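Cast an eye over my tokenised protein here and flag anything odd:

===
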Amino acid sequence: MPVLQLDRVVVRGTNWVGDAVMTVPALRALRQLFPRAHLTLATRSWAKGLFTEADFVDELLVHEGSGLRSVVQQVRQWRTHDFDAAVLFPNSLESALVASLARVPLRIGYAADGRQGLLTHPLDLPSWRSSRHEVFYYLNIVEHLQQMSDYPAGVLGPPPDGSLKVGESRKSAALEMLRAKGVKGLNGEGHRQQPLIALCPGSINSRAKRWPPERFAALADLFIDELEAEVLLIGSAAEAEVSQEVSARMRNKCINLTGHTDLAELVAVLSVVELLVTNDTGPAHIASALERPTLVIFGPTNPLTTGPFSEMGAIVREPPDCAPCMLRDCPIDHRCMTAITPDQVFKRAQVMLANKLKEPLNKSRLGFVPRSGTDHPQRT
């Protein structure tokens, strides 16, 4: 088979923060597969906060808006770059339409949303998608490119690398911002003896994923009373109301950063905390990719596919028979979340802070799937 030579590759990025982090292993694999190619990530402006310092991407090509105007903008951008391949991570019709109208010769992605005719290499949706981590869904596209070349090693051979890095200058800026917001005792190395703990009580696209605010408030008070920790509340402006409710229900004082940081600043803040406790939302993936201890409270969603993709990540889950339902609003009593207590989360967090949890925390990272009817893993 002839070698697949690609010089200018565009990758259409995903539209949600958590999904974007889960594409990192595929982006790294693509760099490994085509080390001399110029790799462009076509994405939204918010993604600069994630990928500005990425060593596996050469260029960010930003687009905004939606609809016809956005399509025209993207087509013009792509044509000026003269790409010879487009790797489409989203399943949207729009992403395939842009690649086709921009006359990119090789267009690869999943045959979804009626877009098969716009792709030169449409891929079937994998049957294992609901039983393996989402990172493998994106890696599968890169593996098909590998099969089209004579690359000697399998892209999926070693454990995939989903890590992100934050430079020292950005960490220093985050520490200065935290001092200005009222965090005390931060030294030149970054931290004091008491832990700095971030809580993310919101979730933009699903109310069902939210652990009750009064339980986040009780957990925050436990961290402050028992560990003398300083607690940050984080999230986007759209999650400000739930963070305000958590703060109002607390007996102690916390520092509410929700809505007061852009994504780049939030990434830098998460890089200097000792622990993040969060719902299944974007910051969960960011913090674990930064190799910070990350404890994720799961209810209606599937931790096997969207859990933290890092050995620094862990989950708390008490699934009823109806979980995972993947619903955005619970039609009954939210039992998947109300079954989880603040004491339960606090005890698990204490173990993580003490560095006593030695085994890999997220076995799906290594290709594990659950046996039917249990939560015990088995190797695929």
